[in-house]
Amino acid sequence: MQEQYRTVARAGVHETEINRSRFICALAPAATEQEAQDFVARIRREHPTAGHNCFAYVIGADASVQKASDDGEPGGTAGVPMLQMLMRRETRYVVAVVTRYFGGVKLGAGGLIRAYGGVVGEALDELGTITRRRFRLATITVGHQRAGRLENDLRATGLAVREVRYAEAVIIEIGLPDSDVESFRSWLADATAGEALLELGGEAYGDA
Predict the structure, then answer these.
(1) Which of 19, 136, 149, 168 has the greatest number of C-beta atoms within 10 Å?
(2) How far apart are the first and last CA of the chain?
(3) In this model, does residue 101 exceed pLDDT 70?
(4) Contact, 171 vs 197, CB < 8 A?
(5) Nearest to residue 73, comparing CAs of 54, 99, 50?
(6) Residue 90's pLDDT is what?
(7) Any residues with CB less than 8 A from the CB of 112 and at least 6 apart, and which?
(8) Number of C-beta neighbours around residue 15 at 10 A
């Protein structure tokens, strides 16, 4: 698995005008290919009278799924440059839809490529990106008398505390880098006089 990946910070829209044509780029994070396709369908419903709703998306931290569509523009002049911009910026789990309202002036193949790729780049600049790192999910089980202090210590060290549940014992779910597992295990034993139980789970990505 990739140690980290970059994605768009939030969903949003950026618009530019080139030779009287409006290019509206809708950009959003997408956890799955289905989510990306649903976003494309929603943007198309919002712009039913547009000449084109071209799209590109990249799913997977390793960019295992890459799709693009020119939606009626000349082959290779819209979806591909959009996809290339997403890849050049090293963004993952992201979907872009560029809606074009034709303004009466033809841009030519080169002009279209620059316009479609460019508006995606501008949208990424405007909305910003965030980095997500791979974490090992882990569960700490500890007695009530040590739980409050331990939770404070965990948050103070900057670890991702995902959930705290109070039952017969207190269960604290955290995320930590794989490389820190053994050193964290030693720290936890010292911090709780060996009373806390650490169980490792699967992997996930979280904000770096």
Answers:
(1) 136
(2) 16
(3) yes
(4) no
(5) 54
(6) 95
(7) 73, 74, 77, 78, 81
(8) 15
Summarised one tens digit per residue, pLDDT across range 42-77 is 999 999 999 999 999 999 999 999 999 999 999 999
Kindly tell me the number of DSSP H helices and DSSP E strands found in the chain: 5, 10
- Non-local (6+) Cβ contacts of 80 within 8 A are 56, 68, 70
Q: Give 8-33 pLDDT, tens digit per residue.
A: 999 999 999 999 999 999 999 999 99
Tokens of 11: 């969903």
146: its two tokens:
């040590």
Please name the residues in contact with 31: beta carbons below 8 A apart, sequence gap of 6 or more: 93
Please name the amino acid found at residue 203. E
Q: What's the pTM value of the predicted model, to 2 decimals? A: 0.75
CA distance 100 to 25: 9
